[in-house]
Amino acid sequence: MSNDNEKSPELTLLGSSDVPFPASPEEATLESFDNPSPDRDYWIELDCPEFSSLCPVTGQPDTALISIRYVPDRLCIETKSLKFYLASYRNCAAFNEAVANRIADDITSAVAPRGLELRAEFAARGGISLSVEVSHP
User: Fold this and answer.
1) Global pTM value
2) Which of these is catalytic: 34, 41, 55, 92?
């Protein structure tokens, strides 16, 4: 068993303080590590209370609480890479529904979870708040 203090060679962001945030989701990488308990179903919950993207029509910022729950299969999401990935949306102009679905798709592509639930609770704009729930499978 490896020492938890040792950096895995495939993790490029963890332990690096001089890496700039990616400018877009296309430039971001979701990194992963081996599930320490692949024979057990368990939920991992991740919350990003300071998510932001841009309205594709007005260019105004949309802010949201992004909550991710997943049951890992072989791989788990490395959280610093998730932080960088989610931050890459700050300059991304897209409708809220597209943003939530893309995040779910990208996580599913990166770690192939046994199950995934994503909830994006966008702050009210124009007096209406919007929430999007995505699940896999």
Assistant:
1) 0.85
2) 55
